[in-house]
Structure formats: structure tokens, C-alpha cells
């Protein structure tokens, strides 16, 4: 219980120590922490496409572009105006500002993209991606690669389902995406050499 009440403060995510004066404060904090998927989904169902339009899966290429452009902007100290991310758009609709970041889960990201079709498409792609990783990592005996497989399972089961904003997923997942790309390149090169004549 103390992790739920003081965890963000202890781990340096929130700098002000929370103060709980009553049981109502404790319950309010608890429900605020765990209700964001429901709040986001209700918000999206009620306000998309009325207050904001569908995003038509543009967040995925924009999420990929944010990584190199974000690094360039930090290195050269220039300001690049990116479109709002899914989480920023969701927060803007709920709070009236994009600051604060109310995350979008995988169902919300699908609905934000293209209504019910978006939900079905994103869930189908997630299933295909999981099947691909299971196939690639199935016969791995190397402990480093087994660790990479476990890291992907944890990443998908925690981050991808609850925080499905592509900009956040790709930026936070660079440490996992880069070694996987290196492994895939080596895997494809070795298989190509094995079956080439």
C-alpha cells in the first residue's frame, strides 16, 4: 500500500511528498492512479471525432520520426514543433492543457486512430508482432538473447498495453529496440548465408 501512496515520490517520479489528511485523500489518490484507462476510454468514446478528428495511424510514423528529430533538436539546441502525441491530445481534451500526460491504452490508441477498425487492426498487429517475436526467439539458447526475449515480454505486457502512445513507446523503448534490430540483422544474415547457394 505504501508503494501505491508514496512510490512516485520515493522513485523520483514526483518531487513533492504527497500529504494524506484523510481516508478520502488516500482513496482519491488510489482511484486517480488506477482509473486512467477507463477515463481515457470514456473520453475518447465521447469526444472522438467530435472534438478532435481520427488520427489514421499517423502516430506510428510520427513516433518513429520523433526519435532522430528529438535527438537532433537536443544536440543542436533548436526547437522542433511536433504535432501533439496521443497522450497529449487525450490530456488536452480532458484537462484543457497538454501538460500532465493522461496516457492512452491500446484500445484507446486504436479507437483514436480509426474507430472500431483501428482497435481491431492494432490488436491484430500486436498479435502478429508477438507471434513473430515468439518464432524468432523460440530456439534461442544464448542467455543474452533469452534475456532480450524476457525483456520484450515484460515490455509488451506492461508498457504496450497500458501506454500505447507510439511516441512514448518508441522513445522509452529505444534501449530494447536497438539490440533487437541488431539481433534481427544478424539472424537474417546468418539464415541468408545458410540457405544461399
Strand content: under 5%
Q: Figure out the total of helices.
A: 9
* Element order: H for helix, E for strand: HHHHHHHHH
Helix/sheet category: mainly alpha
Q: Which bin fits the share of residues in helices?
A: over 70%
How many angstroms does the end-to-end distance come to? 62 Å
Radius of gyration in whole Å, from Cα? 20 Å
* Strand element count: 0
Mean pLDDT: 83
Shape, please? globular
Unreliable stretches, pLDDT < 50, 5 or more residues? none
Largest sheet descriptor: none
Account of the 3D structure:
The chain has 197 residues and is an all-alpha fold. 72% of the residues lie in helices and 0% in strands. It has 9 helices and no strands. The chain has helices at residues 2-10, 23-34, 36-47, 59-76, 86-95, 106-137, 143-162, 166-172, 174-195. It is globular and about 65 Å long. It starts with a helix and ends with a helix.
Amino acid at each position: 500500500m505504501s508503494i501505491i501512496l508514496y512510490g512516485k515520490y520515493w522513485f523520483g517520479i514526483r518531487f513533492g511528498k504527497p500529504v494524506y489528511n484523510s481516508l478520502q485523500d488516500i482513496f482519491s489518490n488510489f482511484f486517480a492512479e488506477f482509473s486512467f484507462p477507463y477515463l481515457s476510454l470514456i473520453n475518447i468514446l465521447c469526444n472522438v471525432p467530435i472534438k478532435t478528428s481520427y488520427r489514421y495511424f499517423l502516430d506510428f510514423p510520427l513516433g518513429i520520426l520523433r526519435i532522430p528529430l528529438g535527438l537532433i533538436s537536443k544536440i543542436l539546441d533548436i526547437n522542433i514543433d511536433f504535432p501533439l502525441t496521443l497522450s497529449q491530445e487525450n490530456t488536452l481534451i480532458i484537462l484543457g492543457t497538454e501538460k500532465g500526460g493522461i496516457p492512452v491504452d491500446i484500445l484507446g490508441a486504436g479507437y483514436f486512430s480509426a474507430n472500431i477498425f483501428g482497435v481491431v487492426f492494432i490488436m491484430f498487429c500486436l498479435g502478429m508482432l508477438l507471434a513473430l517475436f515468439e518464432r524468432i526467439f523460440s530456439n534461442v539458447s544464448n542467455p543474452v538473447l533469452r534475456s532480450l526475449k524476457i525483456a520484450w515480454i515484460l515490455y509488451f505486457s506492461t508498457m504496450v498495453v497500458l501506454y500505447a502512445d507510439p511516441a512514448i513507446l518508441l522513445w522509452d523503448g529505444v534501449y530494447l529496440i536497438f539490440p533487437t534490430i541488431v539481433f534481427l540483422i544478424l539472424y537474417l544474415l546468418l539464415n541468408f548465408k545458410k540457405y544461399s547457394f
